[in-house]
Task: inverse folding
């Protein structure tokens, strides 16, 4: 037992690394760290978050919502940004901090797990989705991610999956257990007064919010919408710094009814877009439980989603599902033909959102951290060898 846990038997030192950190500005990992980390801090735990700064001219706060923040740089290259930052994080952590538990986000960071284990720090790895299936990676990237998954299985003391489909994958492919801990869904209660700034009104537009990556199917949604007889505009929120060709494809598919807003970082405005949309179209296909989808249902949006198990797990009967541009076109037309039905589906969405509670998510993280702190690094873990259930 560490000195800290002897003095404070109920207080853990928890390090979180492998992401852009806090304040949360980007994706699911960052949202999870902020929501779970601040709740753990409020319960008396000491939470340390390694963070990157998108604006180096304005240093990050040293304390944020009860969490200690360590700001470190990263190489500005897609394939190395995360790994370079995690390498610096581990280098900073080992000689200065000996947490009771480390939570590493993203299986891509698994090459650094042996160093943490050598320091006898129990490690949980949040494996995220099936990264090797993402269209942005070439053969080398896909091979790396498959190797990283195997390392995560072998060197983690626990694996965290945010969706049943991810848990099933690790059980079938590696015969490895996971702790199933989904993200939370915020209960968004906002007005729609700021929509007028964009020339929009509640119930008077369709919405997409996604990074421009091929597995998020923004191009399919835009294509389907353009094929429809829609009278209401399609508002597209999102961009991608490394996807110029894909962005150009989306721009070429769009017609005058499509409004490409780029990134929207104003959370209040984004919430009003979710809440005010006639339908939110969700095209994510490989990333497990998606925070954008959870935020949409928390805002009471009717959702039409790409037909994969992750999205069905979240939406259940509240959602409608599509696979092709023709499917999207039919759903767009039916939505405009019966707006009252979309409002009723929005209420069903709120019911689904109640199943994803951040306080309960934090309970699970806290229980996992206590378990790992008590048992220490495990000597026996699955080998990391694949069964071949999911060939590359």
Result:
């Amino acid at each position: 037992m560490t000195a800290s846990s002897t003095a404070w038997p109920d207080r853990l030192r928890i390090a979180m690394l492998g992401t852009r950190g806090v304040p949360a500005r980007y994706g699911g990992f960052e949202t999870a760290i902020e929501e779970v980390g601040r709740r753990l801090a409020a319960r008396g735990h000491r939470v340390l978050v390694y963070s990157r700064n998108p604006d180096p001219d304005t240093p990050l706060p040293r304390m944020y919502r009860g969490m200690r923040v360590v700001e470190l740089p990263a190489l500005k290259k897609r394939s190395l940004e995360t790994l370079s930052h995690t390498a610096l994080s581990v280098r900073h952590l080992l000689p200065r901090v000996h947490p009771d538990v480390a939570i590493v986000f993203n299986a891509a960071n698994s090459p650094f797990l042996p160093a943490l284990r050598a320091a006898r720090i129990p490690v949980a790895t949040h494996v995220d989705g099936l990264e090797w299936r993402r269209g942005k990676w070439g053969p080398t990237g896909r091979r790396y991610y498959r190797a990283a998954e195997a390392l995560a299985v072998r060197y983690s003391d626990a694996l965290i999956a945010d969706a049943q489909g991810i848990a099933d994958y690790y059980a079938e492919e590696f015969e490895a257990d996971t702790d199933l801990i989904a993200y939370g869904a915020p209960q968004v209660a906002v007005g729609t007064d700021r929509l007028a700034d964009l020339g929009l009104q509640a119930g008077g537009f369709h919405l997409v919010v996604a990074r421009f990556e091929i597995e998020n199917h923004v191009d399919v949604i835009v294509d389907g919408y353009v094929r429809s007889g829609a009278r209401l505009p399609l508002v597209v929120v999102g961009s991608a710094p490394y996807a110029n060709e894909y962005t150009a494809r989306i721009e070429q598919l769009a017609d005058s009814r499509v409004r490409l807003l780029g990134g929207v970082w104003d959370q209040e405005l984004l919430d009003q877009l979710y809440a005010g949309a006639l339908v939110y179209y969700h095209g994510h296909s490989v990333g497990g439980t998606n925070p954008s989808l959870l935020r949409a249902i928390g805002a009471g949006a009717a959702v039409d989603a790409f037909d994969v198990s992750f999205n069905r797990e979240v939406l259940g009967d509240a959602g409608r599902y599509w696979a092709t541009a023709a499917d999207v076109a039919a759903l767009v037309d039916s939505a405009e033909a019966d707006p009252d039905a979309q409002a009723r589906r929005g209420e069903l969405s709120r019911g689904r959102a109640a199943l994803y509670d951040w306080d309960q998510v934090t309970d699970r993280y806290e229980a996992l951290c206590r378990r790992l702190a008590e048992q220490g690094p495990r000597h026996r873990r699955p080998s990391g060898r694949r069964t071949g259930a999911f060939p590359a």
